[in-house]
Amino acid sequence: MNFSEKLIVDDNALFKIKNEIQAEFSHGLNYHGTDVSMIPTFVYGLPDGTECGTYLSLDLGGTNMRVCEVNLSGDRNFSISQEKYKITEDLKTGEFTELFSYMAKSIGHFISTKSQSKQGQRIPLGFTFSFPVDQSAINSGKLIGFTKGFNAKNAVGKDVVETLQDCLNKQNIPVDVVALVNDTVGTLLAHSYQSGGAKIGAIFGTGTNGAYLEDLTEIKKLDDEAKNPKAGSKMVVNTEWGNVDNARSVLPITEWDDIVDSASINPRRQSFEKLISGMYLGEILRRLLVDLHAKQEFLSNTSTLPEAFNTQYGLDTALMSDSLRDSDGETTHTKQVLGALGVSAENVRELDAQLFRDASQLIGLRAARFSACALAAVIESEASENAAGDINIGLDGSVIEFFPRFEQSIRDALNVILGNQAEKRIKIGLAKDGSGVGAALCALQAIKQGVAKK
User: Fold this and answer.
1) Any coiled-coil ranges, and where (predicted)?
2) What is the per-residue DSSP string for 55-89?
C-alpha cells in the first residue's frame, strides 16, 4: 500500500467517526471526568446582532496579554480598540497575585489612555483565560493548572475572576469582571452577533475545538441550581472535541501519526486534534517524507536530508499551504518551499516537488474530512430540533482561514454525511477575534443573565 492510500478517508469512515463523536458527546454530557469533557459554560443564550453598549475584554494566553474595548452598535457591527502588554518570564513564574496585579494595572493603563468611556464609569469586562479551569458559573472558575510556559506560584485552586477583581479594586480601577470565557465559546458569540444568530462555533487553527447551544435537559451532569429555568432553557457547551477517540476505536491512524503522537508531550491524548490542527499537520508531513526518503522515494539523490527535515516540528504547516498554491501539474511554489527548507535547487526533481505537494494535499484533505465529522455530530442534533431553519456556523483559526480548499473540503464531506439538502441550510462564515469581541459579548450576556448590572 502506498502512502496516498493510507491517507484517504472513505465515506464509510466518515459515518463511523461521526457516530463515535456523538457517542462521546453523550457520555460527556452525562458524566464528569470524561475524555470529551462537554464543559458547561453557564452562558444561557447567544447575541442576535441587536445588542448595544461598550464592553472590555482581557485575553491572557501567551507571551502577550491583550486589552480591548468593544463598542457594539446594535446592527451586527462593532468597533474595537486594543493594546498588547508584554508578559515577562518573571511574571509567568512568580507569585500568582503579582501576575494578576500586573494585569489589573494594564487594564487601568488602557482605560486612561485608550478608552472612550466616561471617566469613573464602571465598565464590564469579559476575561478570556486560556488555561484549564473548573468553571462553576459564568463569572467564576478555579485554576486547575497552568500550561504554555506559565507556572505562577500558589495559583492552583484560586478563582481567577475573584483574584483579578480583587486586584482591580485595590488599584481603584472601575472595572467589573463579569464573565470568564473560552476562546471557542467566544468564537460562537462573536459570529452569532455578526451574523444575526448562530448555532455552532469552532476553531481550526493551532488546535481545534467546538462549542454549541445545548438543551439543559440533555446536560445530565448539571446540578439542579444550574438548570434554573429562569436563566434559560439552553446553555453553551464547550465540547473539547480534540480529545475524541483516544482509544482509537475508529480513527484511521497511520504509522506517521503514531510517531507524531509518541513524540508529543501528551501521548495518546488529544488524538483527534493531532490529525486536524495546524500544530501537527506539518509534523505529520515531515515524518512521512523522512520515511519516504529512507525508502529512497523522496529526494533519493541526496544521502542526508536538510536539518529542517530532521527537527521535530521543523516543517511548518504554513509551508504546506504555500505548496498548495500550485495548481495540478505545477510545482513552482513547491520548489520554493523545498528551497526554504534547505534543499538545494539542483537536488529538487519534478517528481520530489510533486510528491511534496500531493502529500500536503492529502494530509489537509484528511484533516478537513475529520473536521466535518465533528461539525456533523452537532449539526444532526440541531437539524432534528429545527428541521426548517438554517444552521449558522462560525469558524476561526489559521487552518480554516489559510489552508487552501480546507473549507470547501469540509462542505463536501458534510454533504456526504448529511445529504445534499444540508448544503442549502448550512451557512459557514469566518468569525474573527473570538478571544476579544467574543469575550466582550460574554460580558454582555452575563449582564443579561443578571450576574452584574450595566
Assistant:
1) none
2) EEEEEESSSEEEEEEEEEESSS-EEEEEEEEE--H
Biggest CA–CA distance in the chain, Å, is: 71
End-to-end CA distance of the chain: 63
Cβ atoms < 10 Å from Cβ of 245: 20
* 443 within 8 A of 55, measured Cβ to Cβ: yes
Tens-place pLDDT, residues 307-329: 999 999 999 999 999 999 998 88
Q: Which residues pair with 59 in a beta bridge?
A: 66, 128
> Do 333 and 379 sit in the same domain of this protein?
yes
Cα separation, 354 vs 169, whole angstroms: 61
260 in any annotated domain: yes
150: alpha, beta or left, given left = phi > 0 and alpha = psi -120 to 50?
Answer: beta
The whole-angstrom separation of Cα 78 and Cα 139 is: 24
Please give the model's pTM, rounded to 2 decimal places: 0.91
Helix axes 278-294, 255-262, angle to 10 degrees: 120
> How does DSSP classify residue 26?
H
Range of the domain at 78: 45-181+434-445
CB atoms within 10 A of CB 103: 23
Residue 319 within any structural domain of the chain:
yes
Predicted local distance difference test score (pLDDT) of residue 27: 97
pLDDT, tens digit, 9 for 90 and up, residues 60-93: 877 789 999 999 999 999 999 999 999 998 999 8
Place of cell 471617566: 119
User: Phi and psi of 225, rounded to 5°?
Assistant: -65, -40
Q: Which three cell numbers stand for residue 186?
A: 467566544
Residue 375 lies in a domain: yes
- b/e sequence 280-307, b meaning 16+ C-beta within 10 Å: bbbbbbbbbbbbbbeeeebbeeeeebbe
Q: Are 240 and 209 in contact (CB under 8 A)?
A: yes
Q: Are residues 54 and 33 in the same domain?
A: no
> Within a domain: residue 349?
yes
Any idea which residue has 484560586 for its cell? 158
CATH number for the domain spanning 116: value is 3.30.420.40
Beta-ladder partners of 118: none
* 67 and 211 belong to one structural domain: no
How is residue 403 annotated by DSSP?
S
Residues 352 and 386 in one domain: yes
Count of the separate structural domains present in the chain: 2
